[in-house]
Amino acid sequence: MEIRSLGFWAIGVLLIGSLIGATNGSIHSYNNEKFTVKFNARFFHGGSEGLYASKFQDLNSSSSDNPFKGKSFIRFDDVTFVRTKESASKQNAMQSTAGLVEAIILEVKDRDRIGGIFLKSDAICCTPELADTGSCSLGEVIVNRESNDLEWPRQIKTFFKGNKTEVTMSPETVVINKTGMYYLYFMICDPELDGTRIRGRTVWKNPDGYLPGKVAPLMKVFGFMSLAYVLLGLVWFVRFVQFWKDIIQLHYHITLVIALGMCEMAVRYFEYVNFNSTGMRPMDVTLWAVTFSSIKKTLSRLLLLVVSMGYGVVKPTLGGITSRVLLLGVIYFVATEALELVEHLGNINDFSGKTMIVLVIPVALLDACFILWIFSSLARTLEKLQIKRNMAKLELYRNFTNALAISVLLSIAWIGFELYFNGTDPLIELWRMAWIIPAFWNILSYGLLAVICILWAPSNNPTRYSYLAETGDEFEEEGISLTGSGIKSTEDVERNELLFGLPDDVEEGKRE
After folding, report:
1. What is the pLDDT at residue 18?
2. Cis peptide before 153, with omega less than 30 degrees from 0?
3. What is d(CA 147, CA 265) in angstroms, rounded to the nearest whole number?
4. Which residues contact 504 (CB under 8 A, 6 or more apart)?
5. CA of 186: how far to CAs of 8, 110, 115, 366, in Å?
6. C-alpha span between 230 and 445 (Å, rounded)
7. How confident is the model at residue 469 (pLDDT cuts 50, 70, 90)?
8. What angle do CA 122, 128, 131 make, to 5 degrees?
9. Which positions carry the signal peptide feature in this UniProt record (predicted)?
10. CA 74 to CA 210: how far, in whole Å?
11. Is residue 21 classed exposed, middle or buried when 0-12, 13-18 and 19+ CB atoms within 10 A define those classes?
């Protein structure tokens, strides 16, 4: 009962823990997006990423072939603003500045320096009253400049010309010399520019490549995990070959999960290497990585389920429930694959939070089904082994239960930490720690697989982990009789009766 309650415990936290968003990319694309009205301004969020300080503080320190080598920067590529024809028609064709759009780049800790907070005003754009005090320029975003840092927050202005409907920003590359979480906003203060849209893209780069700062350490994690899976695979292969005569079906399943984990981590590592060098996710490599990940997740859960059912240890087959196990696996794979594709192949601006929830909820519910089924099956298997007094296998399953319980408790604790981490850091100021959250799940999954490999490692004593009918594993169904002299089948007893006759007391009992 304790195992079942532990399974129910995990369901609630799993439903919440699955609501983890996708990783940001280094190229932010804008596809004819609208500006949003807030207070007296119209703004568009152009992106946010953690950026490390440039290794060189001026362009002359860099390589002459690549002046931005070793530098962090934000580059504006063909960013174009399109206003309505109605708005453009109100302007004079000869007017050189007929509408202002500002790009504001700021570090998250300087967020209070944008708008009139320091002037005790809710305004974002300068009003005539504030302009009269000399605190800001009318028609522009209010920026609080400090004497020791006059360049930041960075303010880049772009003016519409005459009565033209479009204007493209001048090519601009902003070098980042301080480590921090940077936000980019495009802002409009002129109410005549209502309905303006934006298209183009911005490229964000760290000193060592295009990987966003919050996920850059994961490249090393995937490299380390690849080596860890290779090591586990080599040890498992040696045992597999050494005791190949005592191999059971379960060992092939474990081998497949190890191989998939090895492939997944290797493909993930090379995907991140390519992403870091080009700034773009290679479609084919990412698709393979996502598929390997989905297959491994599915087979890992199926492995836990069939082990909990006692497959190959307490029973030789799954019997009539095989089709249900396979059906759950297929549905889980499809749901996971859809979620992974959206997370890793979609642009960060391509889908909303509601879309993500629609994809996350089925995966969370299926995970809950797996948890319930695993713990209920484990409870029945332990109960059966206790009844049969099979102490070797009972000890094996107790160790497995303890490992599974520890992993569930660690998962619950980590999900609690993750919720606290995300809840107390809405602006991602602790972005340099964010990589440890996905890294933990990979390490935990590997640890649980390693435990299964240790417990079910091939050996010269297969009776410890394999199903053997003659040991009385299924005595209820096979009609096996236990006597003081050993194990005898029903056929053997009947043969003895014919050859030697029945004992006197049995004869008398039959006559009666």
Report:
1. 34
2. yes
3. 49
4. none
5. 47, 16, 14, 41
6. 15
7. very low
8. 85
9. 1-25
10. 11
11. exposed
Distances (CA, A) of 176 to 53, 74, 275: 6, 8, 20
Tell me the residue type at 11. Answer: I
Q: Residue 115: phi, psi to the nearest 5?
A: 95, 180
Instruction: Kindly report the backbone phi and psi dihedral angles of residue 193, in degrees, each rounded to the nearest multiple of 5, phi listed first.
Output: -95, 20
pLDDT above 80 (res 377): yes
Q: Which residues contact 154 (CB under 8 A, 6 or more apart)?
A: 103, 104, 105, 106, 174
Could you tell me which residues come within 8 angstroms of residue 35 by beta carbon, excluding any fewer than 6 positions away?
42, 43, 44, 186, 188, 196, 197, 198
Lowest mean pLDDT of 211-225, 345-359, 486-500, name the range: 486-500
Question: In what helix (H) or strand (E) does residue 46 lie, and over which residues does it extend?
Answer: strand 41-51
Describe the crossing of helices 391-424 and 436-455 by its angle, rounded to 10 degrees. Answer: 180
> Is 300:449 a contact under the CB 8 Å cutoff?
yes
User: What single letter denotes the amino acid at residue 356?
Assistant: M
The Cα–Cα gap between 467 and 318 comes to 12
**pLDDT tens digits for range 255-297:** 988 998 898 899 889 888 888 888 777 777 778 888 888 888 8
| Residue 43, burial from CB neighbour count under 10 angstroms (0-12, 13-18, 19+) | buried
Identify whether the C-beta of residue 309 lies closer than 8 Å to the C-beta of residue 377. yes
Q: CA–CA separation, 152 vs 199, rounded Å? A: 25
Mean pLDDT in the chain?
76
Burial 124-144, CB ≥16 within 10 A → b, else e: bbbbeebeeeebbeeebbbbb
What's the pLDDT tens digit per position in 64-90?
Answer: 556 677 788 999 988 999 888 888 888
- Residues with Cβ < 8 Å from 193, sequence gap 6 or more? 42, 83, 87, 99, 101, 160
Tracing tokens 């070793």 back to the chain, one arrives at 70
Give the CA-trace dihedral at 153, 158, 159, 165, to 10 degrees. -130
Distance CA 70, CA 86 (A): 46
Sign of CA dihedral 188, 193, 195, 196: negative
